[in-house]
Amino acid sequence: MSKPYIRIFDTTLRDGEQSPGATMTSVEKLEVARALARLGVDVMEAGFPAASPDDLEAVRRIAIEVGNSTDGSRVPVICGLARATKNDIDRAWEAVQYAAHPRIHTFLATSEIHMAYKLKMTREQVLERVRDMVSYARSLCEDVEYSPEDAGRSDPEFLYRILEVAIQSGATTLNIPDTVGYTLPAEFGALIAGIIQHVPGIEKCVVSVHCHNDLGLATANTLAGIQAGARQAEVTINGIGERAGNTALEEVVMALATRQDGFEMETGIDTTQITRVSKLVSNYTSIVVQPNKAIVGANAFAHEAGIHQDGMLKNNQTYEIMRPEMVGATHSKLVLGKHSGRHALKARLVSLGYGLQEGEMDQIFERFKALADQKKVITDADLEALISDELYQPRELFVLDGLQVACGTMGMPTATIRLRDPAGGMHVQASVGTGPVDATYKAIDAIIQAPSTLQEFVIHAVTEGIDALGEVTVRIKGENPSRVLAAQSEIDQPRTFGGYGADTDIIVASAKAYLAALNKMLVALGQYGPVEETSVQTVINQ
Ligand code: KIV
Ligand code: ZN
Q1: How does pLDDT run across 223-280, given as a tens digit for each residue?
Q2: Looking at ligand 1, which residue's alpha carbon is closest to its atom 2?
Q3: For residue 541, is pLDDT > 50?
Q4: Which atom in ligand 1 lies closest to the alpha carbon of residue 11?
Q5: What is the pTM of this model?
Q6: 113-120: which pairs have CB atoms within 8 A and are 24 or more residues apart?
Q7: How many beta carbons lie within 10 A of that of residue 139, not counting itself?
Q8: Would you say the CB of residue 510 lies under 6 angstroms from ligand 1?
Q9: Residue whose CB lies within 8 A of the most ligand 1 atoms, among 105, 107, 178, 222, for a mutation test
Q10: What structural domains does the chain harbor?
């Protein structure tokens, strides 16, 4: 008998992108979507098309380019989120209809607190709206998902009624969100079991779970929901998402794979892709993965204590419940030196999944040669950092053209910087600061004059060794509010933006990361016209 199949619904590009600072450019979103397809997700929530014309366009491009197969291989369902309004549903359909398998996901809250304060609607009005909007979505699209937002704090009897109405109106998936991460695993499992037992017609639908991590219970709640009969798990890469985040894809998938004795269920995920996708999402969102994060943290497979190391040498199962190779956590070493050719580099990049266009290959080859002059061994991690730094950047309005710093114990740290502005003009500025990075950032601020506050600055080495590439991730908060979509309306709010930079010189990497974040912010504020971005093609399905 075949094992029950758990559909993996990835919402990194929608709920994940709602994390502060996680805003991605449309090229980055497309690249993440390709990586998610390669990972084998069943459904990809590509965004919230009604949020803005840019969001709609990003979902449309993903539907066209990732939601269709050129070689007969399996492609994911491409889903767009919509509030329970005609306009949102129309926008979602406008974006996803180009996919081979489109889905509209609509939601309306069902907890007393959300209905009374946020929606200002009665139970009857909520029921009617769900009936109308699910039917409307179904008139456009065969595949419709409905979520009673804040289901975790809703009255179960009311939930049963509303889910029944959603089924009668044509919903094909019923998603049960613990929107505020409030429930406990036994409670959430019982809620799912109750729904499966009491909602008439539920056997015609897929029951899904969507948990948030406010109490650190998202994975436990998701697994409890699956044990109670849910057959779709809504997750994000690295668990990114609103507040404390969503359930982490890698945790659910590896729990199901590692504890087959308890679950006896399967997913369609190629687990060996997990580490790479995690890194890609971390770079693009500028959300650094904590070192002790399960499955994808830098220390997830590290053994420090002598007793543990001794045990590992004797039998790795003494302290290791999964092999790092299972999640693609071992980086092979590509030993190429300055005499190595383009072909070897290109072949390695293709085997890593990158199919670069000629101009992009020239850029990467030049950076590779420069790095090979400084470093003896270049790993896959180095190559990925070079690609992120060189190609996956927001539209470059201000470009770093030169940087020199003087620092140490003898005087005031000083940075002199040269930037090229969007019109091609050169600006040179020198500043002093508390350290070389501070001096550099002050010089950049003096040229660009876009008010923002630095919220986070993280630096780390890509590989071990003194010659390693340094990666810098920064997060800035703009001081000029921009228009953002709140749950039911639009509000003005300062937004955060992330930036990434890599270089063997950590001050240069720091300058690049800060400029990347400022460039994203300036584009979002619409000060420099529409975003024109170049695209990097990733080879899919190899
Ligand atoms: O957490 C939540 O309730 C959501 C819904 C839109 C599904 O993200
Ligand atoms: Zn959510």
Answers
A1: 999 999 999 999 999 999 999 999 999 999 999 999 999 999 999 999 999 998 998 8
A2: 179
A3: no
A4: 8
A5: 0.85
A6: 113/150, 113/153, 114/149, 114/150, 118/487, 118/488, 119/488
A7: 11
A8: no
A9: 107
A10: 7-285 (3.20.20.70), 302-378 (no CATH), 399-527 (3.30.160.270)
